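Thread: "does anyone have the structure for this chain?"

Original post by V.I.:
We have the sequence but no experimental structure in hand. Need at least a predicted one for the grant figures.
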Amino acid sequence: MSAQPLARAFRQIGGMTAVSRVLGFVRDVVFAALLGAGPAADAFLVALKLPNMFRRLTAEGALSNAFVPAFARARREDGEAAAMALAGETQTTLTMVLVALVILGEIFMPAVIGLLAPGFADTPDRMNAAITLARVTFPYLPMISLVAFWAAIANADGRFMTAAAMPVIFNILLVGGALLIPVASGWLAVEKAMPLAAALLVAGLLQMAVMAQLLRRTGRMPAWRWPRFAAPVRAMWRQFSVASAGAIALQVNLIVDLVLASLLPVGAISWLYFADRVAQLPLGIIGVALGTALLPRLSAQFREDDPAAARASLAEAMRLAAFLVVPAMVALIVIAPQIISGLFGYGAFSQAAVAASASALAAYAIGMPAHILVKILQPAFYATGRGGFVLGVSIAAVVANVSLSITLMPVLGHVGLALATSLSGLLAATALAAALARRGHLRLPPPIETMRTVGCCLVMAAVLFGIGRLLPALPPAVELGILVIGGGGAYLVAAAAFGAVPRQLFLR
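Reply from O.Q.:
Generated one for you, tokens below.
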């Protein structure tokens, strides 16, 4: 794994992630046009939030951060059979726990939704729809968790494409579900999102089938093994408990935002969702892709006692991220209204919703570099068994986010919630970077590189501003396309002229 260039792995993961996110935008465009940003959308988004929150514990973050280093260690110290035995026991334990969780969730769903969205109590139709939709979507949790677990095995082998392709399947099916929304026109207005909920389950089943078949073909499908909790397994679950505690802390941020947003005017949950969807594009393509590629790489480098190589990997990741994320942040701030209008401003999605979502997008964009830096730096702590520090930072970020949300929401409304998220991310990134720098594991890029990137972004911002002033009245999608091409082209030309393009992007 360590021999594979980081940039190559990044291109594989980021490329498939980009395809998935484009399909996700297609899904959300249909979703916004047919449901708008009203009670129906609010009900579905609350229902979807529940499996997504648990998924981040069992799928995207904590489990992978604990399992990948443990799997690599078992394979290196005890052989392939021991590593696969570890995988088999983990698979069985994970499935048993998640099935039990789903059963409990189905029974107590009304209470859970009441806690997540207390503001829905004033709109019974919205509350009832959210409960119904959540009961349909919650079984997706064990499906996507197993898919992510199997993907972690593939990632540990340095095979990233298969895992990265799974969200593509997910979004293709949800696009189909979104297109079926008109079929539900005869139901209660807030239950029109049922086709999306059903499509979620179909997507989970298909992802499981595809991932399982691919692992069987390569002989990497773990056998189901009754947990014996030997020393390597116990060590892995201890690391998971630390990582999951950190992930739980981060979920508190999401819960607090959801609870507070439910107290704002109808539509606030949807405004934040659509803004976050756009902000998550760079985070998914850049931050998640680099973090996924870094974890097995850093695990091997630290295990081989090669801190210099680990520093070089982190420096390379930060250089790639800065080149891509800083212009993304600037663009999302400068042309936020045009982005939201061009992507979602159709049908039931009103101009008022466009303006409200654009304001939230600009606030989310401020924290984008920090959130991506967190994704890059966290693998270094998990690779060295220092997940406890990540937990402490996560808790501090939660406290900051809750405090800032409560402080800013009365003044800025839903925008205050987005801004609080950005500022708490900045706190987390600063703490992680400082800790790695003290240990000598982090080498900051030379100031001249930062100055070059900032200069290129200023050129891009000027071009975006000029295009926006000179363009005649055009359809929103056309205007957005011109701005993206013009601004992106200006940035790349300036980067080439200033020598700011990382050569790693083009190395095979």
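V.I.: this helps a lot. The mean pLDDT is 80.
O.Q.: and The longest helix spans residues 268-303.
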